[in-house]
Task: structure prediction
Amino acid sequence: LVGTVPEEPRCTVERADASLTYSLFLQRFAFSRPVILGGVTDNSAFRTLCTREKLLAAFGPFPVRLSTANTYSYRKVDVPFQEYVEHLLKPQDPTRLGSDTLYFFGDNNFTEWGPLFQHYVPPPFRIPGTSPAYSFGIAGSGSGVPFHWHGPGFSEVIFGRKRWFLYPPDRTPHFHPNETTLAWLQHTYPTLPPAQRPLECTLRPGEVLYFPDRWWHATLNLDTSVFISTFLG
Result:
């Protein structure tokens, strides 16, 4: 069925809790491998502001910039936020190409969305020499961004579940840049020998994933999801 997305049976990304110190984060993860952080922040107040009703009331008439769900995401389309939520926020069609799939992630007008972001509590860790920038998004079940890479960052799920696939910089994954993550999961993933499979896990509300610089990653929203990333540039 369209929008029916499986959750992986295991998590191969290391986890850490609030006992992780900044020095251990730098030593063990910051420059070497991803980690899922649990209990390091409390964004319950931010979550109450991110319900469908409250977001529509606050931002309904404002335009939002949608990006194509392919590796390079070059095409952008501006629509009112209310139109996106009520008409475009749907489960991913497995037959559609990434260039034909639009959703809201990454491009935020900080003049309009800044008051909301002021209520977000970011992860407590930083990479020396970087400064944080937020990226807020809302996406339907089965949507996601295919494999790509950029600088380091954190990603937190506010509502829903988000499945991640990650490869280190020296292991370029096999994928077509215009194939959606859902299509890759259905067609390519089952053919991978165990040794060639990515690190993977599903994030739930309140969990934060850290990914190091230049790590390949693809995302797949298992539900209609609200999420926010903190990119370290």
Remarks:
- Residues 65 and 78 are 4 Å apart (CA to CA).
- The chain has a mean pLDDT of 93.
- Helices lie at 22-30, 44-48, 52-59, 81-88, 110-117, 181-187.
